[in-house]
């Protein structure tokens, strides 16, 4: 038996409970993992609270992230004792995820944990940090250089924003953190932000083309924030979009794209080949200061994660919520 968060749905209402599950109930897969840590992301919070249509198969063990130790593998590529991480691939949505003490996954989903991180640090990074790294990789591939100007990071006190700030700072980029929690300014500057702005200054409906300010953007907010970011990006700059905290709409025009040559990159962290995943994790390992990484952590137990989920959706938790699955 092992402990897990267990989601069920009845008449459209989601119920989340902390319960024991028989190992015989684990899904099919080549690799069994003793999970040590998981993480609580915006998507996990939507699943646990039932506020979003995240779960596609019921009942479900949520959690789009896990880090732990291989216990058994029928694939010779993985051996007992290997330190591994699994993110994305539909876990916690269509396949049982990481908010549990045990997991069974397909071998193709497993990634070897980089030597520079332990299993707990891996879940400070997790999907949010991996997504941030993909955004930064897109900006660099586009040719955005540190001397091109400021990079705007929206939703900066959240998971993606926190890692993005630390990673960009490690690479030498000047960054501007946009947040609705100005009381977190010291925290954001500690992660590497050059300055901090109130999200209200870019979160309301704005003109379709505005003063050129940003060399690049990492946006996890969407809606009017993303539209304004595009409208104020410099000619031939790049904007990466990876979230919808403000909304899934995009109330913009084609003007930034056809008059300034701005490029909008959509970032999907769920279905990414392992070679690119490894590049992203290696980038974080090389360029994110470990002290900055640890400053992002908010550690909770497995059962406690249920109560934290609505606070994440309400924007009341900063940084990365790491879940120790072996404590309540």
What does this structure look like?
With 328 residues, the chain is of the alpha/beta class. The protein folds into 2 domains: 2-113 and 296-324, Alpha-Beta Complex (Quinone Oxidoreductase, Chain A, domain 1), CATH 3.90.180; 128-266, NAD(P)-binding Rossmann-like Domain (Rossmann fold, 3-Layer(aba) Sandwich). It is 29% helix and 27% strand. It has 9 helices and 15 strands. It has helices at residues 42-49, 119-142, 159-170, 185-190, 223-231, 255-259, 274-287, 290-295, 304-313, and strands at residues 2-10, 13-21, 31-40, 65-73, 83-87, 102-105, 111-112, 151-153, 175-179, 195-198, 214-219, 233-241, 263-266, 297-301, 320-324. Strands 3, 4, 5, 6, 7, 14 and 15 form a 7-stranded mixed sheet that branches. The chain has a 6-stranded parallel sheet with strand order 10-9-8-11-12-13, sandwiched between helices. Strand 8 (151-153), helix 3 and strand 9 (175-179) form a beta-alpha-beta unit. Helix 2 (119-142) packs across helix 3 (159-170) and helix 2 crosses helix 7 (274-287).
| Second-tier CATH architecture of the largest domain | Alpha-Beta Complex
Element pattern in H and E? EEEHEEEEHEHEHEEHEHEHHEHE
| Major sheet attributes | 7 strands, mixed
CATH topology of the largest domain: Quinone Oxidoreductase, Chain A, domain 1
Fraction of helical residues: 25-40%
Average of per-residue pLDDT values: 96
Q: Could you name the ranges where pLDDT drops below 50 across 5 or more consecutive residues?
A: none
Q: Output the number of helix runs.
A: 9
| N→C terminal distance | 15 Å
How would the global form be characterised?
A: globular
Look at the structure and give the CATH class of the largest domain.
Alpha Beta
Return Rg in Å: 19 Å
User: Which structural class do the helices and strands define?
Assistant: alpha/beta
In terms of DSSP E residues, the strand content is 25-35%
Q: What's the count of strands?
A: 15
Q: CATH superfamily membership of the largest domain, which one?
A: Medium-chain alcohol dehydrogenases, catalytic domain
